[in-house]
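Exercise: predict the fold of this chain.
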Amino acid sequence: METIMINVTIDGVNVDVPKGSTILQAAQIANVDIPTLCWIKDLDPDASCRICLVEIEGMPKLFAACSTPIADGNVIYTKTDRVIAARKAMLELMLSNHTTDCFSCQKNGDCKLQDLCYEYGVERTPYVGAKRNDPIDDSNEFFTYDANQCILCRRCVRTCHALHGVGAISATERGFSAKVSTPFGALLGESDCVSCGNCVSVCPVGALLPKQPEKFRSWEVKKVKTTCTYCGVGCQQNLLVKDGKIVGSEPLYGPANKGLMCVKGKFGYSFVNHEDRLKTPLIKKDGKFVEATWDEAIALIASKINAIKAESGADALAGLSSARCSNEDNYIFQKMMRAAIGTNNVDHCARLCHASTVSGLATSFGSGAMTNSIPEAADQDVVFVTGSNTTETHPVIGSFIRQAKRKGAKIIVAEPREIPLCREADIFLKIKPGTNVALFDGMMNYIISEGLQDQAYIDARTENYEELVEVIKPYTPEAVAEICGVDAEDIKAAARLYAEADKAGIYYAMGVTQHSTGTEGVMATANLALLCGKIGKYGCGVNPLRGQNNVQGSCDMGCLPTDFPAYQKVFNPDVVAKFEAAWGVKLSGEKGLTVTRMLDAIDEGKVRGLYIMGENPMMSDPDTKHVRHALEKCEFLVVQDIFMTQTAELADVVLPGATFAEKDGTFTNTERRVQRIRKAIEPIGQSRADFEIINDVMAAIGYKNNFKTASELFDEMASVTPSYAGMDYARLEGDGLQWPCPTKDHPGTPIMHVEKFTRGERAIFKPAPYRPAAEQPDSEYPLILTTGRILYHYHTSTMTGRVEGLMNISGHAYVEINPSDAAEKGIVDGGKVTVTSRRGTVTVEAHVTDVVSEGVIFMPFHFADGPANLLTNTVIDPIASIPELKVCAAKIEKA
């Protein structure tokens, strides 16, 4: 629809604005400043502060600019004596119930009320009388609330309800007693608050303040724009730097986060300056680590690599890169393995989380990545979440889904646990772990039987539909209900809701991928979307949620045993020739080893040397006992990391890498958006950027690169990576770019497969029958153990485990068990229990809850004091080689 423009004049500036704009929006277009205290971008106006009052020519009263629609021909005045007098009066009223200890206030210099009082010459209030005298609430681990400083702008309340979607606080009471509070006046630390800190970020005064281990005033800090180092959302943020230390973090309005952050991104920065950081190279001598110089460490690494290669060939060496590291780090790491060493034995943790996404979606569509953009979740009619605890693992995306709910969207959740998003779900399918494929087949069966499929889309844009119809015939909703343990009517309702929606997206994570049928599960999501014509359209798509900050980028960079950068196959002679020409050396055309096969090969004596950058397989890989056995047997192990991890303890050489805050580079988020990270502080001690370390190791091995900076490295990468070819640091300075971006004038690709698929004109249906998980409960191990992440930690907790507040909230391993199963074993909430599988035993705390069903137990995999992956199964998906971390048989006993 064509936008109708109208003409207005604001303070003498004549400007055309879209019809329906408010006065404030028109002023922003005209670059005329109107002050606000309550206004929040992306929300309907609240008009509670009245600071934005303006005068409209010919009108007898003043109007709130934030909420008043502008009319064609309006003449607006924002600085008349009448307007200024009204604004001064509003400020004086605010001060009448506001403490004015500005000199001692942490917000001094960064307070909007203080700034406005200065601008309008308000030094004190004429309205003298009683003032609030409430106690300060410091029960939250990360921030304090002082109601005596509150001006009741309600920015915090509206952010919590309408943007973040939690609703932990509200404006309560009336008149003089009015204040912001939790339900029933509970302390924040005892409420539903999830400590995201978004309320703190939007508070214009000193009512909500972060707790500051390092005190600072706003003018003492340098702000450095960067990308969050935690999950795959790619939130934009400023790091606040004082005296060479990170002392704070604040969200920016980035394309993927829209000004929101989670507790980890907002408050989880203290690991950067933690005393446990590795600060110098270490070499193990006589079983003990001793400090070494960089020259000594790199010389030893090069000599060992060259010796092993000379004696046993390049394939006797292997490397693991990291989804926590930048694109630049990962590109040079795989280049070291291939060009300097001569092997394709390179892999990383995507093997353990989304390898099945890469293989599954690449088969169906031609590209193994999220099809649509993150903010579209807020505009959908139906949101289908499966295999993802979205509000905890990708909290900002969870917030967008809750925003969609507020607009009237329907939510379908298919999960083995009753996750927080179930509170908003219209349909909750509490499926048995490992039955995803059956559920998707059942939904498709019903859609076809009811004629709800998009036949025109199927005919025009897909192939192999007939096979799909045949394969899913046995999977009626009634048959699938028996397999999944849910109601057949709920399956039908979910299928109809999804099929009939105009805009419906599928969101999944490791609950779909980490199975021996993970690739089939991923392709089943693609089948469902294709069946209903929901690929290549806004507000639709298949959207895998990548767990780590750069797991998408590390795959894109070629840190896979079968793929050069941009998924160009190592077994394609033309591709090999291309990279030989670019890198100037002979390359291997043989498939390399996956991480799971690397460990077996070490045990078999086929791999003698292993170089690990930023990975911790002792915590992340299944069957930890087997992992330890292999790493201890490895002849030469190098670990490059920021802390002495459980894996680093087993190394022969440990190298101190730099964090995201100590180097330049890029991350690629889950929506394929490439964004900058920027060096905020100098590396701690003698630590160095990972790409700089690898560059020196390559030179010592005998291969010299032609780049010196991260920017130059990126340029080389882009020259051999078609999907990144149109990018460079200059183009990434703004909001970044979404690949594919093949040329310098290309705008990037927010939605994939709009006109044709990456694989060609048509996508392909790849149906599969349901196959049960490899390990089923029996009389000895009668329970199903499933694992996952929680809000307050990040994968192996290498970083979050060094953040005191996060550890205080959740710092120990536990297992969730259904009350019925607990009663049978005499287990009480908070009691110690042993959880045992065929691979090991751990002792943890019991959380008795009906979040899990009878016969199912759940453990987070973050904690070293009860490592869940000591128990998990090593059986792999035959296509993607991803382990079945989500299902194994277990038993539980009172300790």
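Check your answer against the key: Residues 783-894 form a domain with the Barwin-like endoglucanases fold (CATH 2.40.40.20).
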